[in-house]
């Protein structure tokens, strides 16, 4: 059984208290969860128990694709096989298809690196040469870069914990194949993790694809904490096949570029040894190289208001402006790499300059209603959230070729019928009253893959909403009654 549950009390006056504050045993919830699973034969479920002061209670359980997100909002997945393509999947391949690494040079550097480590007292334990590299490449679905392949012809990874690649343990080929498969199964973002995630540029120039994951990334070393060194066999236009990147737990919004090849990485290690830039733990036999990375320019900023252009960082890819009233947004052209922008207290008439930016996610808090026509035909905008203001005209959004996600739950829509003609829209977030109007008027976008019921709703209300979206809710389990106390 896999479960996660909590208990809260809604108090008079709007306060909410957790079960722990009242000393409620957590095991009671686990038993209730297990009973529901056993009764229905479910492995996973969403369960809601509401108890009134009068003793009346209602119990609702559901095992389909409806779950609670942030607060009391619910999401429903209509097309579980769909995930939006990331920008990196749409990028062209490398202009130079020749790998930067060299197998003979890499093998020579590797042997020298091992010799130098042994002289310093590092106890490396390596496997025998890999038995069948070709079979591993078949399972990976692509060949290894020639320089990394040359290393596996010397040894099939390390067996100790010395961390051969500057603290990262070199993986045997079988583990490389298994880890590559696990990375592929971790679908990017997903509707559970948020529909408006923006992947940042990993390097000032287009060397690495702007993705959180890619089949062409093959992890070959790990740090034991969820981070990996990987060879990139599907680089961006200015990258080279076989370049080394960092991926994993802290790189969901994009990998970090490390070197143009394994060959170059080994050369860096030897240079640091030559320069004495290292430290050895004599007791544990651990070598730490003094890798110095150039400071990365800032990628995000938060401003109370927009200053003049000279105060903006051209490297910013994310920006939040808390008060954009009476502001000429033309100054944002000084941030030519801006991908995500949140503007609060802005007037719709100020939106024209946004067409000149490579925005992919925009959150607009409007002081007044207006027309989003200034965003017409924006070539890169993928997700948009609009809040506040009076009625907002959205007709121009039909012209955005890459718009797949839209949140209008906290604004009034002047022309909701437009949504019915937005065939490219795959995610939509609306409030309960807005959804009711959509169902009544028959104006649902035709290709929705996921939807959000924003605001506060019970699980029972969310199930009824999911049914109106077309999901099968026949397995929903509902019980109600009145508790008896003595």
Q: Can you walk through the features of this model?
A:
The protein has 486 residues and is an alpha/beta fold. 20% of the residues lie in helices and 24% in strands. The chain is built from 9 helices and 23 strands. It has helices at 26-40, 87-90, 103-119, 133-140, 146-152, 173-185, 262-274, 432-441, 459-469, and strands spanning 8-10, 16-18, 46-51, 56-62, 66-68, 74-77, 169-170, 217-222, 227-232, 243-248, 256-259, 278-281, 286-289, 300-305, 318-323, 340-346, 361-366, 370-371, 383-393, 405-413, 427-430, 450-453, 477-482. Strands 5, 6, 14, 15, 16, 17, 18, 19, 20, 21 and 22 form an 11-stranded mixed sheet that branches. A hairpin with a 7-residue loop joins strand 10 and strand 11. Residues 21-25 and 187-193 have low confidence and may be disordered.
Record the SSE blueprint:
Layout: E1 8-10, E2 16-18, H1 26-40, E3 46-51, E4 56-62, E5 66-68, E6 74-77, H2 87-90, H3 103-119, H4 133-140, H5 146-152, E7 169-170, H6 173-185, E8 217-222, E9 227-232, E10 243-248, E11 256-259, H7 262-274, E12 278-281, E13 286-289, E14 300-305, E15 318-323, E16 340-346, E17 361-366, E18 370-371, E19 383-393, E20 405-413, E21 427-430, H8 432-441, E22 450-453, H9 459-469, E23 477-482
Parallel strand pairs: 14-15, 15-16, 16-17, 17-19, 18-19, 19-20, 20-21, 21-22
Antiparallel strand pairs: 1-2, 3-4, 4-23, 5-6, 6-22, 7-8, 8-9, 9-10, 10-11, 12-13
